[in-house]
Design a protein that fits this description.
single chain; binds nicotinamide-adenine-dinucleotide; two-stranded antiparallel sheet; globular; alpha/beta; Isopropylmalate Dehydrogenase; 12 helices; about 350 residues
């Protein structure tokens, strides 16, 4: 197969980590007889420096016409004080909107080899954590009407949380399909004891659950979910939730795994086009030092193969390559402990590519 991939390397450690993912993708292409064509598009601070905007219209068109987009990270102190209308993150929101990326998939995996990196006790994490949060990305309170007015002499601010049935149904389908590909368990997170939008969410999920009898479905309130993620995270397989709850819970979940550098994510549209990125930022404190952990980006590339290209064996091969590197004791500084083999970003990329 031949696929066109746009690389949005971005700022800080972005270029270093994306380069390692490309190495691994090239090894996959060679082994399985595929051809991956790469087009680089500037995004974030580097684009502001060159063009005065965080992504150009031409760059956006290239993203829209690609088979998939792989992103490093954007931003850094240099651009913290630019005009808010051209801040680096504006480009990410624009790409999500233009590509119709309404579903954010965040697998949270604590590799058994790194069990002692988790802030949770060994008795709680057991043989590792492996859950997936499916977050609605283009609706809810972050996209609702908002305003601040003066009422009876004081300021009053209002944000609307709005969801339509079709928005809930399409994210629900992504979640049920994800559960089918995993351990067939889905928990839908809401606040249906208080919010109307959550009651519609729950009713819509129940309707969908009837279409997926193979999936063991349950409802869970968001406050209880926040507790259960700490108390008993291994009970979960797939969690689906609205935009703001998902934003908060996915950050909570990512911390269970020890290092932010290990975690991938996918943002999907209704077609096969998706954007894939590690969950961390541009880590300006370690940029250019060749010590960043590239595994989150490499695992994002594996998700790209799985979700946009339907290359399941190839995605499995990348995950196996990561496991093999960890089993062999290779660790970037963020996950390094005495007795293991300390490697930099480039060397970890070389090892992962060789393991393919
Ligand atoms: P960050 O995720 O960049 O860094 C937080 C900490 O984690 C730092 O100590 C960093 O060194 C470490 N870290 C992150 N990724 C790592 C990796 N792969 N390997 C080893 N260590 C890693 O968060 P921040 O410092 O709050 O933000 C830095 C910049 O990134 C800001 O400008 C912020 O706006 C931006 N940001 C971008 C994205 C994105 O592009 N999607 C997401 C979050 C933050």
């Amino acid at each position: 197969m031949e696929k066109n991939i746009v690389l949005l390397k971005g700022d800080g450690i972005g270029p270093e980590i994306v380069d390692q993912a490309v190495k691994v993708l090239d090894a996959v292409a060679e082994k399985y007889g595929h051809k991956f064509n790469y087009t680089e598009v500037d995004i974030g601070g580097c684009s502001i420096d060159k063009y005065g905007v965080p992504i150009t219209d031409e760059g956006m068109e290239k993203c829209k016409n690609a088979d998939a987009v792989l992103l490093g990270a954007v931003g850094g102190p240099k651009w913290d004080n630019v005009d808010p209308s051209i801040r680096p993150e504006k480009a990410l929101l624009a790409v999500r909107r233009e590509l119709g990326l309404f579903a954010n998939l965040r697998p949270t995996r604590l590799f058994p080899q790194l069990a002692d990196s988790s802030p949770l006790k060994q008795s709680i994490v057991g043989n590792g954590i492996d859950l997936m949060i499916v977050r609605e990305l283009t609706g809810g309170i972050y996209f609702g009407k908002r305003y601040t007015e003066v009422v009876d002499g004081e300021k009053v601010a209002t944000d609307y949380m709005t969801y339509s049935e079709h928005e809930i149904e399409r994210i629900g389908r992504v979640a049920f399909e994800s559960a089918l590909k995993r351990n067939k368990k889905l928990a839908s997170v809401d606040k249906a004891n208080v919010l109307d939008s959550s009651r519609l969410w729950r009713a819509t999920m129940h309707r969908l659950a009837e279409e997926y009898p193979q999936v063991e479905y349950s409802d869970i309130l968001v406050d209880n979910t926040a507790m259960q993620l700490i108390k008993n995270p291994t009970q979960f397989d797939v969690l689906v939730t609205e935009n703001m709850f998902g934003d908060i819970l996915s950050d909570e979940a990512s911390m269970l795994t020890g290092s932010i550098g290990m975690m991938p994510s996918a943002s999907l549209s209704s077609g096969t086009l998706g954007m894939y990125e590690p969950i961390h930022g541009s880590a300006p404190d370690i940029a250019g030092m060749d010590i960043a952990n590239p595994i989150g980006t490499v695992m994002s590339a594996a998700m790209m193969l799985r979700y946009s290209f339907d290359m399941m064996d190839e995605a499995d091969a990348i995950e196996a390559a990561v496991n093999k590197a960890l089993d062999a004791g290779y660790r970037t500084p963020d996950i390094y402990k005495d007795g293991f083999k300390r490697v930099g970003c480039t060397e970890m990329g070389d090892i992962l590519a060789a393991n393919i």
